[in-house]
Backbone:
């Protein structure tokens, strides 16, 4: 199931003419998908968002994911980002991956 959360018609523009908020596709896997109640959704985050900004948006949409999200890996366009202060670097897709058992 796909859902859209927090999107608004049209982005507002900052002084430089760039959008100050951007739509980001967030994909959830395994237990994260079960906790979110969807496999994928669109969240609106600040332009220049960090991993921490995405985490905050996910928790605003799904407060019950707090404990699990602390254990999850976050990939931005396939790049593993561990630091909450790490910028997404223009990524358009973020994957939320809980720990997996096995090998």
Residues:
């Amino acid at each position: 199931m796909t859902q859209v959360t927090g999107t608004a018609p049209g982005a507002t523009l900052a002084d430089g003419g760039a959008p100050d908020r951007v739509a980001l596709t967030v994909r959830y896997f395994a237990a994260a998908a079960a906790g979110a109640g969807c496999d994928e959704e669109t969240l609106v985050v600040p332009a220049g968002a960090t991993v921490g900004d995405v985490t905050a948006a996910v928790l605003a949409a799904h407060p019950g994911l707090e404990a699990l999200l602390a254990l999850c890996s976050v990939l931005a366009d396939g790049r593993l980002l561990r630091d909450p202060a790490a910028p997404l670097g223009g990524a358009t897709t973020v994957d939320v991956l809980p720990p997996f058992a096995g090998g």
